[in-house]
Amino acid sequence: MTSLLSDTPVSDTSAPLTEATTPTDAPPADVAPPTDNSPLSEDAPRRVRNDDAPQATATGDALLGSHSADAYAELMHEVVDALTERFTRVDAPTSANDRASLESEVAGFDLDCHGIGNVAALREADDLYARNAVWFHHPSYVAHLNCPVAVPAVAAEAMLAAINTSVDTYDQSEVATLMERRLVHWASRHVGFAVGDGIFTSGGTQSNLQALFLARENVLRAHGDSTRRDFLSRLRVLTTDQTHFSVSRAAFILGLDAEAVVTVDTDATGRMDAEALAELLRDIDETGGIVMAVVATAGTTDLGVIDPLTSIAEVCEASNVWMHVDAAYGGGLLWAPQRRHLLAGIGRATSVTIDFHKTFFQPVSSSALLVRDVALFEPTIHHNDYLNPEAEAHSAEAEPNQVDKSLQTTRRFDALKLWTTLRARGADEIGEMVDTVCDLAAEVRELLETQPDFEVLGASDLSTVLFRFVPATARGRETDSATADELVPMIRRVLFRSGRAAVARTTIDGTPWLKLTLLNPDTTVADITAVLDLVRATGHGILAGRYLESTTTEGGAA
Ligand SMILES: Cc1ncc(COP(=O)(O)O)c(C=O)c1O
Question: Which Gene3D superfamilies does this UniProt record tie to the protein (predicted)?
């Protein structure tokens, strides 16, 4: 059949590109394909210059475009050189500047001034930010779940920032959407979802929120007979006392009652007790509640343990309940040859959170929410005429719009970092690094157990170590547990202020503990021994100071 528009010459570029002029996705014949002058290809010159130098524009080098490409390149080289210098020289995990001096430094900048120029501003940022940064790659940074980052991912971060893709609709992202989808399917397959799907998010907090949002809407669908208001008041989310706080905050954001988050008992190691879970499910059912989701954790934030996923899956399947696995921390084990078996059962979950910016060595942010079936997104899809119109959603030409699945609209192409990491290093190399940090944690724990002035708690499946300084005597006086309790936050603060080591602190069952989170595969036992020596010396120093203070006060009173 001849299209009414078929007379329109395809060379007429003023004509709208209707379906008739472009029956396939191929470009019109006279539109030359882009030349393959990749500046990164082996034989291409390092920088590509047009013979016709781009004309200067009114905005000069303020905005990135052809006219400012050279200025951009120079600025980037300058930043990279400055950072290279910093990485070569950094010898402490934090600056020893106290907060008051940092506050006054920050306050000293005029943010309403005339611009000082790109180079000057970046030099200034290097001096303010980089000079005072907290360095996660330093072997004495052992505080939180922050990792050193994969080099190709850092370079990819610069690439995605410059191009500034937004992975919300296909027409803003094209190949980026396809690459993200490919990665999501890759990760889903590793989880064990045969036809899984998912979306990249800003982090574990957002992935958990979205998991509970999907759970709420799918469960509501399944209880179509009750009104939303009645339904919300009956919903329950089952967690443990070790579940990440983002889960209860998500329940709050989703409008659940304060008592909706119910705590399942844990065993002595801090893992969810699957029998207690089964009992609780029966109780909730008998009392008219509706279980919206059971949240198991694969790698709790403090103890680093994995809930018994297989047993929990059995209980959830028997009751037809949504099982979410928060593997924000433990997700990297999927690729760790020595430990991937610890995640057995994860493929039976309904949804899974994985943070690539924790155990896949990605720069923040890089996380994904994965679901076992793409249809689970269905009740939360929103169509908008200007982005993903409903009229097109089911047509043959429907475009893959990630905004259908994402809570965000404009969204970074974080997936590029993971993509380049996989291509550059391979998942196995990353998985081995995860094994290495877990081995290191096990060694450090064993070491601590041999030292009488340290107490250790639990045995992590991952890479946290909980311990505290408990000297047998302090200047001849028995040090009681209360003193050890008090020392925990003091040691952390003094060490942090000194800039020499960053350790974390937490409280388990009412007792304070220092926490090491080991996520740097280049860190050695000797590095950690040095941190432990600092902890010990700081503890002794605090006790000695107290002793001096008390004797001076007593002396003064006499
Ligand atoms: C188990 C767990 N889930 C979720 C989160 C939240 O992740 P994010 O900080 O990326 O939002 C964390 C953070 O430490 C975590 O440990």
Answer: 3.90.1150.170, Type I PLP-dependent aspartate aminotransferase-like (Major domain)
Distance of CA 245 to the CA centre of its chain: 15
Q: How sure is the predictor about 522, in pLDDT bands with cuts at 50, 70 and 90?
A: very high
Q: Whose CA is nearest to atom 7 of ligand 1?
A: 204
The reply to whether ligand 1 has any atom less than 6 angstroms from the CB of 328 is yes
Q: Please provide the size of the chain in residues.
A: 558
State pLDDT tens for residues 32-41: 555 444 555 5
| Residue 329 Cβ < 6 Å to ligand 1 | yes
What DSSP line would sit under 417-453, residue for residue? HHHHHHHHH-HHHHHHHHHHHHHHHHHHHHHHHT-TT
Convert 45-55 to b/e letters by CB count within 10 Å (16 or more is b).
eeeeeeeeeee
Architecture of the domain whose range is 166-425: 3-Layer(aba) Sandwich (3.40)
Write out the residue limits of the CATH 3.90.1150.170 domain(s) in the chain: 429-557
For residue range 253-280, list pLDDT tens digits in order: 999 998 999 999 999 999 999 999 999 9
Q: Is pLDDT of 516 > 60?
A: yes
Asked if residue 297 has its Cβ within 6 Å of ligand 1, the reply is yes
Q: Regarding the domain delimited by 429-557, which CATH topology (the fold level of the hierarchy) does it fall under?
A: Aspartate Aminotransferase, domain 1 (3.90.1150)
Give the distance (Å) from ligand 1 centre to CA of residue 32: 47
Domain with CATH 3.40.640.10 in the chain: 166-425
Distance from C-alpha of 516 to C-alpha of 525, rounded to nearest angstrom: 12
Distance 303 CA to ligand 1 centre (A): 13
Ligand 1 atom index nearest CA of 327: 1
304 in contact with ligand 1, CB cutoff 6 A: no
Ligand 1 within 6 A of 326 CB?
yes
The one-letter code for the residue type at 276 is A
Residue pair 201/369 in contact by the 8 Å Cβ criterion: yes
Q: d(Cα 145, Cα 142) in Å, to the nearest integer?
A: 8
Q: How confident is the model at residue 17 (pLDDT cuts 50, 70, 90)?
A: very low
